[in-house]
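FAQ: What does the model actually see?

It sees only this:
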Amino acid sequence: QVQLVESGGGLVQAGGSLSLSCAASESIFAGNQMAWYRQAGGKQRELVAHIGTGAWPSYADSVKGRFTISRDNVKNTVYLEMNSVKPEDTGVYYCNTHPGQSYWGRGTQVTVSS
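And it is asked to produce this:
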């Protein structure tokens, strides 16, 4: 069964922190780079961070130094630790492979208030 289930979003004040999780089915997770994407209202979905099977992360310039992506290869789960959040981090956050495959989960809403 193909599955991507994101969780952990919510409302947070600017400067605060959030921790996102994404449980993936093994068919999606195993052997693939995994990534977090986000989509703000009216904008295209953008890549936030991705991580290879050897746990080598890469980040968009806008989140570098504030966000940390990690993965648990036993639990088929990818995480995104968000620190020092800003209002422009607001959006729906999705996980997927990198590059993204056609199936997308529902995402989790992150709202940062100023």
